[in-house]
Amino acid sequence: MTALTVPWGYVMILDDQSVSTRVRNDAPHLVALDIDGTLLVTGQPVPGPTVLAVRLVRERKHHVVLASGRSLTGILPVAKELGITDGWVVASNGAVTARLCATCTNGYMLEDVLTFDVGPVAQMALSRFPDVQVGVEEIGIGYRVNRLFEPHEVNGAQRVVSVGELGVMPASRAILRGPNVLDLLEPLRRHGVTATEAGPDWIDVTPRHLSKATSLENIRSALGVPRHNTLAVGDGLNDIEMLSWAARAVAMGHAPAAVKAIANETVGDISQHGVIQALKTLI
Fold it and tell me: Which GO MF term does the entry hold, naming one (predicted)?
């Protein structure tokens, strides 16, 4: 066993295999990290040891890319906690790609934004489930909603609008929430959008043929990182495509069986800071 002493009094223990892997992993990697359930418990800050691990990975010149179902507004505070002020982020399950930039207005530049016509989606959902909550993402601001969500459920400001105003302009992501809403998954997909289960009563709707993986592949190509130097860590159903894309796919210990089945390996759960087990092999 080898003990790696790092700042602030933390000690990371690497076994001999990890040390060997570390030597082989000196070349820059693209490290794609989910946020909720991977880096943090929703509503809580990123734990100190995880912040440290991400910092050390970045000091090794690896490219850490936050890839989340969250809106860009929800990703930016996490990037700040991690000390990431430059590089790429993937928001809204791949519909929004941005470059962080300390000197840019609001701290970022939009690189790629894909949208779809929200109106027919909202009308379909409300015709079948009149009580469904609908949220339509407004990049960098928050959401247009037909009814307010709880503050901890979405990021950014909420603006209540009429049903007609929900689809007044194309959007990158919409939220449908309510009992039995998962019955809409297949009808929405037939309608020509990407519908992703994000909970027992929650669907994320994004443009067709889209996932975190599609945006990550564009970033990988732009950075010139070889495919075999890609690592992804996630815990949710919306991480399946990302894990399938990565050369090394890591599932969190609490992830559903369908996610673990895609992964090459499984680490500890969120309470055990399992993501550090994956990151330490690059430190």
Answer: phosphatase activity
| 214-227 b/e (C-beta count within 10 Å ≥ 16 → b) | bbbbbbbeeeebee
* Buried/exposed 60-80: b ≥16 CB within 10 Å, e otherwise: eebbbbbbbbbbbbbbbebbe
Dihedral sign of CA atoms 240, 241, 242, 248 in order: positive
Residues 231 and 93 in one domain: yes
CA distance 131 to 190: 22
Taking alpha carbons only, the member of 261, 256, 198 closest to residue 42 is 198
Write the pLDDT tens digit of every residue in 102-113: 899 899 999 999
Query: Which of these three, 206, 240, 260, is where a domain ends?
Result: 206
Number of domains present in the structure of the chain: 2
- What's the one-letter identity of residue 79? A
Residues 188 and 214 in one domain: no
pLDDT tens-digit series, residues 77-124: 999 999 999 999 999 999 999 999 989 989 999 999 999 999 999 999
In this structure, what is the dihedral angle of CA atoms 43, 46, 47, 48, given to the nearest 10 degrees? Answer: -150
User: Are 94 and 217 contained in the same domain?
Assistant: yes
Q: Residues 263, 81, 174, 208: is their CA dihedral positive or negative?
A: negative
Tell me: do 105 and 232 sit in the same domain. yes
What is the Cα–Cα distance from 97 to 215, expressed in whole angstroms?
Answer: 7
Asked if residue 136 lies in contact with residue 166, where contact means CB atoms within 8 angstroms, the answer is yes
